């Protein structure tokens, strides 16, 4: 049995450290998700935490316990954004100089916020693991204290305070679903929850294109991924942490993965139905529940709490994700319709679409498509529909009027 390196007592002590710094984040009941999976679902809104994610919990806990000599040498961290902001804000509150290594490609708002809290930002590599190596070298060269994003008992204990809040806010909770990267959050929540309520099921969720945990748990030790590619940069961690690993292996009841399409649908769902802006990494837990649908009743007991781990998303990325989410949900339909190249052909297509209660977003004419005849024109259409069923009806109506329709 792996040794538990963080206990309930450690998490309770961390809560005392954070008492004057953080207030509990909201717990919102989701009627939409409840209807979808058939049991009560609550959303733990860590996207509304100071600095926009749960990371402040662990960063402040760790940094508050540094000696005066360590504080005088400053701290260094590595992050795609959320841990960076947590460390930068904690450093400002504690009067400590902070340097943060962030990957090229990190979102502009996360970079700006980290600098805004007063940290020195250095960009290197393309992954969190690249940045961790650079930050550790910086610590060795300068004497600064490295503040890991997840792999330290103080970090895990701090993140575990989220679990204490969940038990306070939803006393009858039966299942907690947690977005997972390096494992600090789910390990801390599991340590807290299992220490008080061992009957509660704790489930971790990863992006399937950055899922290091399944192979690591099967191997019995952390295993590094060869590559990753996911929009969920906050949980794109190539190797589980050593400290979280023992806790997750011992205490966490399940490890699930979700697709990029599911993440996009989840971000869109949370904006539309919960009125919450959540980054892809923070939407992984709800993405898992949405994919399960009514099958969740065969897997879990309710009430269920889904942790929304962060809300720091670049507006440009949010726009792209919302478009993708709408497309996946059948709300955007792209078609190419071939019509006679003569006046009135386009108006006929548009009139039919109007009858079908279909909103036209974009129209383009193409006359240089290789297999067009000389008297044809191809019209590319981007349409707003009411979902997959309506989209199929629109396509069938066009075919019924004799139009040749290709998927664009």
Model description:
- With 408 residues, the chain is α/β, with parallel strands linked by helices.
- The protein contains 17 helices and 14 strands.
- The strands form 3 sheets. Strands 1-2-10-7-8-9 form a 6-stranded mixed β-sheet. Strands 5-4-3-6 form a 4-stranded parallel β-sheet, sandwiched between helices.
- β3, α5 and β4 form a beta-alpha-beta unit.
- α1 packs across α9, α5 runs parallel beside α6 and α9 packs across α11.
- The mean pLDDT is 92.
List keywords for this structure.
4-stranded parallel β-sheet, 408 residues, single chain, alpha/beta, elongated, 6-stranded mixed β-sheet
List the helices and strands and how they pair.
Layout: H1 8-18, E1 27-29, H2 31-37, E2 41-45, H3 55-64, H4 68-73, E3 75-78, H5 82-94, E4 98-102, H6 108-116, E5 120-123, H7 128-142, E6 145-147, H8 153-169, E7 175-179, H9 184-196, E8 201-207, H10 213-219, H11 242-251, E9 254-258, H12 260-273, H13 284-292, H14 296-299, E10 304-308, H15 315-328, E11 332-340, H16 345-355, E12 359-366, E13 376-384, H17 388-400, E14 404-407
Helix pairs in contact: 1-8, 1-9, 3-5, 3-8, 5-6, 8-9, 9-11, 12-13, 12-15
Q: How would you summarize what this structure contains?
A:
Helices cover 45% and strands 19% of the residues. It is of the alpha/beta class and 408 residues long.
